[in-house]
Each structure stands twice: as C-alpha cells, then as structure tokens.
Amino acid sequence: MSTDPTASERVAIIGAGSIGAAWATVFATAGFRTNLQDTDRQRLDASRAAISERLAELAAHDLVSEAINAILPRIQFLSDLDAALAGAAYVQESIPEDVELKRRLFAELDRLAAPDAVLASSSSFLPASTFAGELPGRARCLVVHPGNPPYLLRVAELVPAPFTDTAVVERTAALLERAGMVPMRLGREIDGFVFNRLQGALLREAYCLVRDGVASVADIDRIVRDGLGLRWSVVGPFETVDLNTRGGIVEHARRMGPAYRRMGRERGQDDPWVDDLVARVAAERRALLPLEDWEQRVAWRDRALMALLRCRRDEPTLDELGS
Questions:
Q1: Which residues are paired to 184 by β-bridges?
Q2: I want to staple 249 with a disulfide (CB 3.0 to 4.6 A). Which of 70, 169, 205, 282 is the partner?
Q3: Which CATH class, in words, describes the domain spanning 10-185?
Q4: Domain range list for the chain
C-alpha cells in the first residue's frame, strides 16, 4: 500500500486543452489520482498523447521521480462531468477565457461537485467575481492561475474574490504545495493578476519599440533571452536593481527613478516612484537582505549566472533543440 499522502486524493481537471493536460501532468506526477474531463472525445485523445509525450520528455531530463507507466494510470480521461467530479476534493477549471462559458460551467460545478470541494479557475485575466459571484457556493471559488506550462513553471497565483473563504485559500495553497507548486497569494483581485500584468508591461513596450523602428523582433527576443531573462531566472526585478546599485533600492531609485519616469511619460503613463513607495519596497528588501550581506549576495548571483551559462554551453543550442 502506498504511503504517499497524495495517493488517496482525487482532483478533477475540467477542459483537456493545453492547460488542462498540463495540470493533469502536474497532479499525476505528484501522486494525485486525476480525472481529466472534456466533452470532446478527440481533444481527450489528443491530450492523452500529449501527456505521454511530455512525460517522456520530463523523464529524459530527469524531472520525474517515477516511471511513466506508474504515472499515466493515475489519469482518467472522461467525457462525463458527473463522473469526473465524483470524489474530487479539488476542481481545476481549464476552459477558454470566455466569461459566459466560465459562468455556465461554474454554475454546473457548484451544483454537481461535493459541497466541500474547492472550485478553482485557470483564468489568465478574469477574476472569479466576474463568473462566480452569484453562486450559492461562491465562498469556495477562486482563481489559481499557473505559469504555462505549470509542470515546468511551478509558480501559481492564488487570487481569491472578496467572497472567497480564507480557509479555502489555505487549503488550496497546501494542496498545491503537495503537488510541487509554489503558490503565491494575491492581496486582492485585479484584472490580469500579477503574472500577466508584468508580462503585459514588457510586451507593450516591445511592440512600441518594433513600431517605432528602434529594434527588430529578433533583437528584442535576444535582449530578453540573453540579458534580462537570464538574470531574471536567478533574481527578480526588485532584487536585480537592489544588487545592481551599491546602496540598494533607495540609491537605485534616486539615480534611476527620474529616467524611468521620463520613459513612462513617453508612453502616457506617469507613475513616479514616490518616497513612501520606495521606502516600502526598500524595507521589504532589507528584511530579506540586510545591506551588510549585499556583496555576498552579488557574488552568489554571479555564480548562479555562471552555472546557467555553463549549462547553456554544455547543452544543445536553442536552434538545435528546435530542429
């Protein structure tokens, strides 16, 4: 008998497109019994093939701890919604980003799922209040937005609506941690959440730079891939500027804040880094990294980047991987 605490837990993934199949991969590799449901039998068959291929690739890169033939049987591919929800303590909706479709599906989920089952949406932009606010069981509804694909990008945004029960958020975070995910709780609902607002800010500027003839699409991708993205894979944007300037966040804001404000104004956005905001960010950074440890952390960042560059040198090139 398995001693894995996830082995007796069942989750339901509703929608067998790319995100649904990816979520099924996450939960099955973590030991959960997983029901993947879609009314389209062809999509279910395609998801079965896609999951098998992804598991083979993960195994080839030593990113799963079990044989594929131990993982795949945990996934049931079902067309019936009632059957998919049976026994599920957690439901992850993964249908297209259409508020009316989500509203209708969540009404069904609220009616059919076990009364204590969590109802989560993979929505990329739509807050739960836009499609679950009128449900009798709205207190168990929230958004759990993954990075794509979640079996590689392990962060997931937990976005409760004003009506979501705090205990539901805690239960969801605990379950995601058991699935090997890193849950990030947002303080309130906001269109696009954090992941896509940050991504969108970069994309808006990238489109403008192409439009204005400043740089090509390929050049912008290279700058992000080999510069910003490489660095951000080790440290985030706040830690980046904290480590780039002796004196940390406060000194960076003093030196660079006016220039960033000018660039924002060029795009019609005037959000200055006022003193109170800089102080708040700096206080959080100093709680994470006292200034006396700054040089050690800079050296750590550089070693981490060296390790990544060594991996890039030793692995096939991006062009070879794409061929």
A1: 157
A2: 282
A3: alpha beta
A4: 10-185, 234-318
pLDDT in tens, 166-213: 999 999 999 999 999 999 999 999 999 999 999 999 999 999 999 999
Q: Do the beta carbons of residue 48 and residue 42 sit within 8 Å? A: no
Q: What's the pTM value of the predicted model, to 2 decimals? A: 0.92
* DSSP 8-state code for residue 316: P
Q: How many CB atoms lie within 10 A of CB 297?
A: 16
Which amino acid makes up residue 169?
Answer: V
Reported as type and span, the H/E element at residue 7 is none
CA distance 273 to 171: 36
Cα 218–chain centre separation? 25
Cis peptide bond upstream of 149, omega within 30? yes
Helix (H) / strand (E) containing 141: strand 141-146
Residue 217, classified by CB atoms within 10 Å of its CB into exposed (0-12), middle (13-18) or buried (19+), is exposed
φ and ψ of 135, to 5 deg:
-80, 145
Q: What are phi and psi of 116, to 5 degrees?
A: -100, 10
Long-range CB contacts for residues 236-245, cutoff 8 Å, separation at least 24: 237/198, 238/281, 238/284, 238/285, 239/285, 239/288, 239/289, 242/285, 242/289, 243/294, 243/297, 243/298, 243/301
| Rounded CA separation 191/78 (Å) | 32
| CA nearest neighbour of 120 among 173, 195, 190, 186 | 173
103, 135 contact by CB (below 8 A): no
* pLDDT tens per residue across span 90-117: 999 999 999 999 999 999 999 999 999 9
